[in-house]
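Tip: read the tokens left to right.
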């Protein structure tokens, strides 16, 4: 089964070039030319990964796509694609798993995407695995710890604030 990726970028040249590179390398790729279109596709399709630009129709469009991806029940990996790098704590607080800085060499981009997909697949298998069963008869068994998705943490829900902060830093 091919892994599905949603690319969200308002620069058509970037969108089409990256789509072609990913499809040649075995991915099934959908594209969206705006944050609004990206959010719509996230509601109607399932993806293994979302790669979104930060600044599109607004400075917070990318943060809104990330928030929509994080609220999706299927938990896609999320990469922020930007020509304007932001601090690691800022893109992580937005909810992205990785920041990809454009332009980037194709081989390195593919390696980073593959690494992120493998990492996300590993996380998903851990989250979906049944918890350990308590040992019966000893009276000392503890119930399994509740698994908390990192996508639901309060820090990952403040994307618009971080996007605004990043915009101020870069002067946009």
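Filled-in amino acids:
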């Amino acid at each position: 089964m091919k892994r599905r990726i949603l690319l969200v970028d308002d620069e058509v040249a970037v969108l089409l070039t990256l789509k072609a590179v990913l499809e040649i390398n075995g991915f099934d790729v959908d594209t969206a030319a705006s944050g609004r279109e990206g959010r719509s596709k996230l509601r109607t399709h399932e993806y293994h990964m979302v790669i979104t630009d930060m600044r599109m129709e607004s400075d917070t469009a990318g943060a809104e796509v990330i928030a929509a991806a994080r609220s999706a029940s299927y938990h896609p990996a999320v990469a922020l694609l930007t020509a304007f790098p932001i601090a690691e704590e800022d893109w992580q607080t937005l909810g992205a798993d990785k920041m990809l800085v454009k332009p980037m060499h194709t081989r390195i981009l593919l390696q980073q995407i593959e690494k992120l997909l493998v990492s996300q697949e590993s996380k998903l298998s851990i989250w979906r695995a049944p918890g350990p069963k308590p040992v019966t008869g000893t009276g000392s068994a503890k119930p399994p710890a509740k698994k908390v998705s990192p996508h639901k943490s309060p820090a990952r829900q403040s994307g618009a604030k971080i996007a605004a902060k990043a915009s101020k830093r870069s002067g946009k």
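The chain is about 45% helix and 15% strand. The beta strands are 4-8, 28-32, 49-53, 77-82, 98-101.
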